[in-house]
Amino acid sequence: MTDTVTGLELRSTISSDAKLTLSLEPVTLSPPGPDELIVRVEAAPINPSDLFLLLGPADLSTLQAGGTAERPTLTADVPQGRLAGLKTRLDQSMAVGNEGAGTVVAAGENVAELLGKRVGMIGGAMFTQYRKIAARDCIPLPDGASAADGASMFVNPLTALAFVETLKIEGHKALVHTAAASNLGQMLNRICIADGIPLVNIVRSEAQAAILREIGAKYIVDSTAEDFREKLTDAIAETGATLAFDAIGGGKLANTILHAMEAAANRTATEYSRYGSSTFKQVYIYGALDLGPTELDRGYGFAWGVSGFLLTPFLIKLGMEGNLRLRARVAAELTTTFASNYTATISLADVLKPDVVAAYAKKATGEKYLIDPAR
Amino acid sequence: MTDTVTGLELRSTISSDAKLTLSLEPVTLSPPGPDELIVRVEAAPINPSDLFLLLGPADLSTLQAGGTAERPTLTADVPQGRLAGLKTRLDQSMAVGNEGAGTVVAAGENVAELLGKRVGMIGGAMFTQYRKIAARDCIPLPDGASAADGASMFVNPLTALAFVETLKIEGHKALVHTAAASNLGQMLNRICIADGIPLVNIVRSEAQAAILREIGAKYIVDSTAEDFREKLTDAIAETGATLAFDAIGGGKLANTILHAMEAAANRTATEYSRYGSSTFKQVYIYGALDLGPTELDRGYGFAWGVSGFLLTPFLIKLGMEGNLRLRARVAAELTTTFASNYTATISLADVLKPDVVAAYAKKATGEKYLIDPAR
């Protein structure tokens, strides 16, 4: 196959004069190399981790639609004070979209057997109609799986599995998760139930608690309840959780979790330790649903850590064998453990509509949007 | 030797009705076991790490002297809200003092060769006239070394060496230290100069900077200077420091250090990374000169960690061989690298005087008090 293919690709640009522009640009792909594929993208989720590249720190109250029906644009102002840290992307047209799935429409000579197959993909630039990609960044979907089934088979599944791997590597026996009713949180519950790992779920509403009860979660605590701290300490004492993964980031939740872990450790203490318990307590912050500062009052001694957590460096450290093991599990349990739910399926052009932006940028727990670039 | 010895020991008690009492209690020691020594304590420093056991969270504006000249007492109120976390020490008479030095006045049969020798000691309860102690917790001082020379041979020297060990274990190439003109900070400078490790010293006054220049420190930045952030970033960029040890704890200093490390890493970045640089940045908080909350705005991506650091668990993890190696270095360089300076030498009774408490509880950088229980 030597033909080129042309399709529209979503691009995000922040200019040096502080303007965000989203647009759909025609992109022509040359034929794939020997180990490459051309995939017609049929489904790509909007993950929280995509939003910062997509929208940057733009002021969403200034969104303005423009362009034509086929080639819409969307612009917004970026407050000047937020340009710091963006200098390496200024005035560059950035492709967006961490992961997706679709059908292989062209394949290089070394990977010809994948032609016509449906695959899941990781690697960025997925908000596009056609994606040229190395075959090693694709996983063939099981027979009968839809593109929607395979669209989110990397970020959330591997992140949830990375939490459990971290627990094992660092020698913890139970874990705490915040924003626990998210798609990721639901996967994590299914993994932990299957693997026999106690999981304390922190949610922010009774509706979210109900979602988790439905799928068999045992420990669910509501951070809006009056007895939250007490209930959290009880659950941590019962499970022995000394590791937490926090999607919120800002505010005092990480601090509250560390306090609860310390209180749980001290329930069994008989001797005074002026430096706090010797039980090591770790919170990993992997999201930023609250962009405010993290506040740590350190009232839990010196045996604690709070760190950022990012999937890619973790997977690099884990090594090839570990990566293959995790990917194999995702493929095998794609429509069970790792099933995702989507609030709505939208077109590439929809991504540029102000009211749709307002919906997906909300990052509401349990809400998730899927792009179908063929629409 | 079968005689008992009796001496006064400083005790700290916090009662359930929220009163701190310091007192000097007569304590009679039975003869040492086969591997034990009785040491006449001749010098014991008041370390910042002793203060919390000594004074607890008492309100120092309520200090009240009492008792007699030979058996003085000191009392103070503990605000009710601060009793949480103290339940395992309430109404117990606690002995205080992490380390000290003195002369062996009685020795068990297996360690008889130490009789009459001067030793440094670690193990608590050092604010006392006589201390019974396992010989393995003592190090004989080099000939000619005074008790004052050996009084601080554990906490500060091992902490400073632990920082450098941590740097090597975790693969950093330079480090940042706060409250850098302290006795500990001066030792750290001498170690880093000897070992060729770049050290960025953060001080809070020109006087402190002068102390460090005097001993050959190369990188000194003053956090009260207007161009502090810029100078800190320059020093970090030049040294490649990605590890910091922070004695302050509260406020925004740890955050500022992480920002400077990130800015230094981004000076050489050519590609935009929405998750911040991939350079891992770690701050260990080992003190609490500022008791306020630690504020982290997370404006430095996800490759960062902030953790508590405590000497004892570190030494346990390091293992016997590493511990012996560090102790041997301390003994060999006791009056050079690991020399301590003291502001004043005081008696056990002085520790209970309100004006003396005010002086040593200030934890002023470079000020340090030595107790001579024989006075």
Description:
Chains A, B: It comes from Sphingomonas agrestis. 2 copies of one chain form a homodimer. By secondary structure, chain A is α/β, with parallel strands linked by helices. Chain A has 2 domains: 5-152 and 340-371, Medium-chain alcohol dehydrogenases, catalytic domain (Quinone Oxidoreductase, Chain A, domain 1); 159-313, NAD(P)-binding Rossmann-like Domain (Rossmann fold). The first copy, chain A, has helices spanning 48-55, 147-151, 155-170, 183-195, 206-214, 228-239, 253-266, 311-332, 354-360; strands spanning 5-14, 19-29, 36-46, 64-67, 72-77, 94-95, 99-107, 118-122, 130-134, 138-140, 175-178, 199-203, 219-222, 243-246, 249-251, 281-285, 290-296, 304-308, 344-346, 369-371. In chain A, helix 6 (228-239) crosses helix 7. The longest helix of chain A is centred in the last third of the chain and has 22 residues, at 311-332. The mean pLDDT of chain A is 94. At the A-B interface, strand 17 and strand 18 of A face strand 17 and strand 18 of B.
Strand-helix topology:
The structure is a homodimer of 375-residue chains.
Chain A: E1 5-14, E2 19-29, E3 36-46, H1 48-55, E4 64-67, E5 72-77, E6 94-95, E7 99-107, E8 118-122, E9 130-134, E10 138-140, H2 147-151, H3 155-170, E11 175-178, H4 183-195, E12 199-203, H5 206-214, E13 219-222, H6 228-239, E14 243-246, E15 249-251, H7 253-266, E16 281-285, E17 290-296, E18 304-308, H8 311-332, E19 344-346, H9 354-360, E20 369-371
Parallel strand pairs in A: 11-12, 11-14, 12-13, 14-16, 15-17, 16-18, 19-20
Antiparallel strand pairs in A: 1-2, 1-6, 2-5, 3-7, 3-9, 3-20, 4-5, 7-8, 8-10
Helix pairs in contact in A: 3-4, 3-8, 6-7
Protein name (chains A, B): Zinc-binding dehydrogenase
Pfam families (chains A, B): ADH_N
Organism (chains A, B): Sphingomonas agrestis
